[in-house]
TrEMBL record:
Keywords: Kelch repeat, Repeat. This is G protein alpha subunit. SUPFAM superfamilies: Kelch motif. It comes from Castilleja foliolosa. InterPro entries: Kelch-typ_b-propeller, Rab9_kelch_effector. PANTHER family: RAB9 EFFECTOR PROTEIN WITH KELCH MOTIFS.
Length: 57
């Protein structure tokens, strides 16, 4: 999962959900991190995230 809202500001964090243990883990990201977004979709292709749509929040 990329981004989100913490009740005060938009985020640009990246988390992954382990569907067996139902635990979230924050991932370490390298390279250029996009600004916080909302209303977008993200999918993983190999070791990269593809983000589509939404807007900078």
């Amino acid at each position: 999962m990329y981004g989100g809202w913490d009740g005060k500001k938009w985020l640009s964090d990246v988390y992954v959900l382990d569907t067996i243990s139902l635990e979230w883990t924050e991932l370490s990201v390298s390279g250029t991190i996009p600004p916080p977004r909302c209303g977008h979709s993200v999918t993983m292709i190999e070791k990269r995230l593809l983000m589509y749509g939404g807007r900078v929040c």
